[in-house]
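Lecture notes, unit on protein representations.

Consider one protein chain, 153 amino acids long.
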Amino acid sequence: MIRILNTPGCGTGGKEFCTTVDTLTHREPHSMLAAMFSGRHTVCKESEKGYVFIDRDGKHFRHILNWLRDGVAPIFNLSDLERVELLREAEYYQLLGLVDRINEVLNKKEDEQMDPDFTRGDIIKCVQHAYAVGGRVRLIGVNLSGLDLSKLV
């Protein structure tokens, strides 16, 4: 059993996490945590209780451990700021699978939030004008995502 502190010393407001070496080394074997606890390096333990101090904010470390345990992190339940914070932690610990997963969610969210180039009213005016002059409407390379263009005719 490994005990990890994010604040040096006991009773100073830090968070304590307990896990196993297998959890830290199995899912992401090339990560910083796997390297730290693989036995290849000497890990400095804090106090007689055997805590390992990691100088990081412990806010998201439970998500890091859950990712290492079962490959799941609550990315969709986090705010945008929390996603970016978790991404920063995943990058620090070199958890490439988690980094990729967070980036997928962030990129998907950006794609969904793209505003259309025109409003429904703009499209209606364009169609009306084209109809009035006997022409056609061609919209090439225009983002119309999210617009309800039903019943225009």
